[in-house]
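Listing S7. Sequence submitted for prediction.
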Amino acid sequence: MSDGLVSNVSLILGVAGASPAAGVVRLAGLAGLLAGACSMAAGEYISVQAQRELLERELEVERRELELHPEMERRELAGIYRSRGVDPALADEVAAQLSTDPDTALEAHAREDLGIDPGGLGSPWRAAASSFACFTVGAFIPLVPWLLGDGRGAVIASVILGTVAALLVGALLASFTGRSVVRSALRQLFVAILAAGVTYAVGAALGVVGTV
């Protein structure tokens, strides 16, 4: 959402700074929204899919090791538990019990040795859809005034909506990180103002007159 907000408010104000027809700003905002959302979704899909494939490969290697060297893998698992302070006899017993079932043994090794949760590798499609939706929401906010109006009023409305949204996004991030709400909100606002200010200045400096 933060990416969508910052990138599209910057794009919209940058184009608006050149004083084109309102239709040009609307087109740029819509294009920025769709292009950014698709790019984010595609990037997230590829990233999560690549990570998933890597983890699946690691699990497959571990599965083969369990099939070829079950006793060695059992001792390795017991050694992990002992290194964490478990009584040696108990560690051997737990490792032996977990090793009796191949799937349970694989899960135990994946968690304890590789740090992987076999059931939580992540869904690339879900990640892509989430990124697409969040980016779209953020990018749509500064575009709203241009769907309803134009001119200086739309510019001011985009700035106001962008400011409020940036503060809310910053505050929301603080609720997840446990950091200062005020500091997080102002930091998000500063980033949005800096990006939008630069693009608006560039647009105003170039100055174009267009009709749509």
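Caption to Listing S7: primary sequence and predicted structure tokens for the chain studied. The first helix runs from residue 2 to 17. The CA atoms of residues 95 and 143 lie 59 Å apart.
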